[in-house]
Specification:
The model has no long low-confidence stretch (mean pLDDT 97). An 8-stranded parallel beta barrel has the order 1-2-3-4-5-6-7-8, surrounded by 5 helices. The protein starts with a strand and ends with a helix. Strand 1 (5-9), helix 1 (16-30) and strand 2 (37-41) form a beta-alpha-beta unit. The relative contact order is 0.15. The radius of gyration is 17 Å and the shape is globular. The chain is built from 12 helices and 8 strands. Helix 1 (16-30) runs parallel beside helix 2 and helix 1 packs parallel to helix 12 (240-254). It has one domain (5-254): Aldolase class I (TIM Barrel). Helices cover 45% and strands 15% of the residues. With 255 residues, the chain is an alpha/beta fold. The protein binds phosphoenolpyruvate.
Length: 255
């Protein structure tokens, strides 16, 4: 049984004061929810105060990025050693990092290995852009990104990570994939690649999220699909009512 996981990616939104206010609202709304793991991913500067507020709740905390070295003269970077004091998860390889900050498949792999070395659970993002999608290259791109991200990752380690299939054309556009379309890529390409790398049984254990313009109205379409184990939510995670509704709908759909 794969426990569904809903993660909120707050991107470069919310000051520390706003993040604290949002967490206070979310704590209320998410208090009695069971059967779904919930993870909040605020900016680096909000991690410490949010960690304090989440302590008694069972809600998880994640960062949105990380450097691969433990420490050193790397001005502006945040290391796994620093993050592991504060949070359990880290989003790696998000398409915005690849697009605007030059992240490569190789860099994502170095980060995945560093996170796992320190007991942080990576949420590894893969997904094709619009041109690749229209050229019929979705499977090829997703498989390449996934194989690269998982290079030298053992079967034991792969169990603790989460994969997010996020078609780039669906992120922040209000144009989500269809439930069936996302399930096909996740079931065939993502789980298929995992099966080739680690065997069929292990491929069934790994949690795979969908991400891209998820909202309270469309979440059920994704969560009723057999191969989709949750969602990585951007825009809709910034409003407490919407994020709580997404989690509640997930509980209902997965019952
Ligand atoms: C994301 O940031 O990973 C994302 C899926 O964003 P949105 O939900 O806004 O499309």
């Amino acid at each position: 049984m794969r426990v569904p996981i809903i993660a909120g990616n707050w991107k470069c939104y919310k000051t520390v004061a706003e993040a604290v206010a949002l967490v206070r609202e979310l704590r209320q709304g998410l208090m009695n929810i069971k059967g779904v793991e919930v993870v909040l991913c605020p900016s680096f500067v909000a991690l410490a105060p949010v960690a304090d507020l989440l302590k008694p709740t069972g809600i998880g905390l994640g960062a949105q990025n990380m450097f691969w070295e433990d420490q050193g003269a790397y001005t502006g970077e945040v290391s796994p050693l620093m993050l592991k004091e504060l949070c359990q998860y880290v989003i790696l390889g998000h398409s915005e990092r690849r697009q605007y900050f030059g992240e490569t498949d190789e860099g994502v792999n170095r980060k995945v290995k560093a996170a796992l070395r320190h007991g942080l659970k990576p949420i590894v993002c893969v997904g094709e852009n619009l041109a690749e999608n229209e050229a019929g290259r979705t499977a090829e791109v997703v498989e390449r990104q996934l194989r690269a991200a998982l290079r030298d990752i053992s079967a034991e380690q792969v169990r603790s990570l989460v994969i997010a299939y996020e078609p780039v054309w669906a992120i922040g556009t209000g144009r989500p994939a269809t439930g069936a379309g996302a399930n096909a890529v996740i079931g065939q390409t993502v789980r298929g690649t995992l099966a080739e790398l680690y065997g069929k049984a292990l491929a069934q254990e790994v949690r795979i999220q969908y991400g891209g313009s998820v909202n309270p109205k469309n979440i059920a379409e994704f969560m009723t699909q057999p191969d989709i184990d949750g969602a990585l939510v951007g825009g809709a995670s910034l409003k407490a009512a919407d994020f709580v509704a997404i989690v509640q709908e997930t509980v209902r759909a997965k019952q």
